[in-house]
């Protein structure tokens, strides 16, 4: 991913009011430039709720163990509202097609808190008809009435962090929940929501091929409309990086992935993205928009934003530490860093996302979303085709099965 370039300190110091800050930033983003982008892409809203019951040893998300007194819910909701209000000038006139409340563990928030959050959003921004509203939930926070209340608060899609249905593996992963809680949470999601997702991980400490199959069988028996299945990665700056567990080697992990693709396919869930499997009509609108290089406004601690303007694509990141974020957001200064994505970086950033999709992308989408002519990637496209990593016709380009297997090699061809 690209580095974020800090806002010039002199500029930040001069921004003394929310209105001045907003107007200055909009003018800076709207000034003339080299790129010629088309109509703005669809817009998603990401809302980060950063607290968890306990930090998992593999997790490098911006998530923090809640203090014994719990998380400061009301103060954080005030900060989110202030953050959104200050960001509105950047998205004037645009409606939100999807909302994703992620974390952290958003299901730690009370249903009343989520209801307030969604009514604040509705009061400030137009939502497109049928707007998808996803909330991430941890089975450790499961209570039947609580999940139903999220639905009444306006959540349309629950995404449950199951990871595994095997109690030994859950313990090895430091999860706060058991197999029984994961099953109960998924069963309730199936009852209360029209659509839901289960997050699973594979290549877990000590996991065999048969154990991975058993986990997936249990998941599929719950008939999830959507599954996200991630290879456990040992991330720097996590407890697992310091005390690495023994995990399956690459060959075994690759066999596990083949098994996952076969088993999900046999149950009518097709792999539409590297880690995402869905029944027809249940693909995740919010994540699809990321992969199609759409726009998103991210509010909350450490949230990332990507927005398109007529002559540039801009990224922002918000203050990461929750208390600092709350103070800054209330002062209209939630953004800690922003950068313009350079002309040279755009093709790679587009491909990092679009080539994760099994069906690839419309060639016209590249032009619309980057503001660059197709000729700027012609050499890389031809090279990828020659190496059997990409197939294309006059309309579309998509990774071949080999390209999907060697995705970083394929994406790397677009680095300049
Ligand atoms: C932000 S978490 C959301 C759900 C919630 N926090 C939970 O864990 O129940 C998103 C998902 O990313 C996946 N994930 C997190 N860390 C990972 C890692 N190191 N390797 C692979 N997948 C990971 C997990 O499947 C997790 O459910
Ligand atoms: S519950 Fe989810 S976000 Fe929180 S620490 Fe665990 S994996 Fe990370």
Distinctive features:
416 residues, alpha/beta, nine-stranded mixed sheet, three-stranded antiparallel sheet, 22% strand, globular, disordered N terminus, binds S-adenosylmethionine, binds iron/sulfur cluster
Secondary structure blueprint with pairings:
Blueprint: H1 9-14, H2 18-30, E1 43-49, E2 51-52, E3 64-65, H3 73-87, E4 96-103, H4 111-124, E5 127-137, H5 144-153, E6 157-163, H6 167-172, H7 179-192, E7 195-202, H8 209-221, E8 226-231, H9 239-242, H10 250-266, E9 270-273, E10 276-278, H11 285-291, E11 295-300, E12 304-309, E13 312-318, H12 322-330, E14 335-340, H13 346-354, E15 361-362, H14 363-370, H15 378-386, E16 390-392, E17 396-399, H16 401-405, H17 407-412
Parallel strand pairs: 1-4, 1-11, 2-3, 4-5, 5-6, 6-7, 7-8
Antiparallel strand pairs: 8-10, 9-10, 12-13, 13-14, 15-17, 16-17
Helix pairs in contact: 3-4, 3-12, 4-5, 5-7, 8-10
This protein binds S-adenosylmethionine and iron/sulfur cluster.
Structural summary, described in words:
The protein has 17 helices and 17 strands. With 416 residues, the chain is of the alpha/beta class. The strands form 4 sheets. A 9-stranded mixed beta sheet has the order 9-10-8-7-6-5-4-1-11, sandwiched between helices. A 3-stranded antiparallel beta sheet has the order 12-13-14. The longest helix is centred in the middle third of the chain and has 17 residues. It is globular, with a radius of gyration of 22 Å. The chain starts with 8 loop residues before the first helix and ends with a helix. The N terminus is likely disordered. Iron/sulfur cluster binds next to loops. S-adenosylmethionine binds next to β4, β6 and β7.
């Amino acid at each position: 991913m690209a580095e974020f370039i800090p806002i010039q300190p002199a500029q930040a110091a001069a921004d003394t009011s929310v209105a001045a800050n907003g107007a200055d930033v909009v003018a800076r983003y709207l000034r003339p430039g080299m790129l010629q982008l088309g109509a703005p892409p669809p817009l998603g809203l990401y809302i980060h709720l950063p607290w968890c019951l306990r930090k998992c040893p593999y997790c490098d998300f911006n998530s923090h163990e809640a203090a014994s007194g719990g998380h400061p819910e009301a103060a954080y909701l005030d900060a989110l509202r202030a953050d959104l209000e200050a960001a509105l000038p950047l998205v004037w006139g645009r409606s939100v097609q999807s909302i994703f409340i992620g974390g952290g563990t958003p299901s730690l928030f009370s249903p009343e808190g989520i209801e307030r959050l969604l009514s604040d959003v509705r009061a400030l921004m137009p939502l497109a008809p049928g707007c998808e509203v996803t909330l991430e939930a941890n089975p450790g926070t499961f209570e039947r009435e609580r999940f139903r209340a999220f639905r009444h608060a306006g959540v349309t899609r629950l995404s449950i962090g199951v990871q595994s249905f095997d109690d030994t593996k859950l313990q090895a992963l430091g999860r706060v929940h058991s197999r029984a809680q994961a099953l109960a949470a998924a069963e309730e999601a199936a009852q209360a929501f029209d659509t839901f997702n289960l997050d699973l991980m594979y290549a877990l400490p000590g996991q065999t091929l048969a154990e991975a199959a058993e986990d997936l069988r249990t998941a599929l028996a719950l008939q999830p409309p959507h599954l996200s299945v991630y290879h456990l990665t040992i991330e720097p700056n996590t407890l697992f990086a310091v005390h690495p567990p023994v995990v399956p080697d690459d060959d075994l992990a690759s066999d596990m992935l083949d098994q996952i693709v076969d088993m999900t396919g046999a149950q009518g869930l097709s792999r539409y993205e590297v880690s995402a499997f869905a029944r027809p009509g249940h693909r995740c609108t919010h994540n699809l928009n990321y992969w199609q290089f759409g726009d998103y406004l991210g509010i909350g601690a450490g949230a990332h934003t990507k927005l398109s303007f007529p002559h540039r694509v801009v990224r922002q990141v918000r203050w990461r530490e929750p208390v600092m974020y709350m103070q800054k957001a209330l002062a209209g200064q939630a953004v800690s860093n922003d950068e313009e994505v350079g002309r040279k970086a755009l093709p790679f950033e587009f491909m990092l996302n679009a080539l994760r999709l099994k069906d690839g992308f419309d060639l016209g989408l590249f032009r619309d979303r980057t503001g660059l002519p197709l000729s700027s990637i012609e050499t890389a496209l031809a090279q990828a085709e020659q190496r059997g990593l990409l197939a294309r016709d006059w309309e579309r380009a998509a990774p071949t099965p080999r390209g999907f297997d060697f995705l970083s090699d394929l994406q790397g061809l677009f680095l300049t």
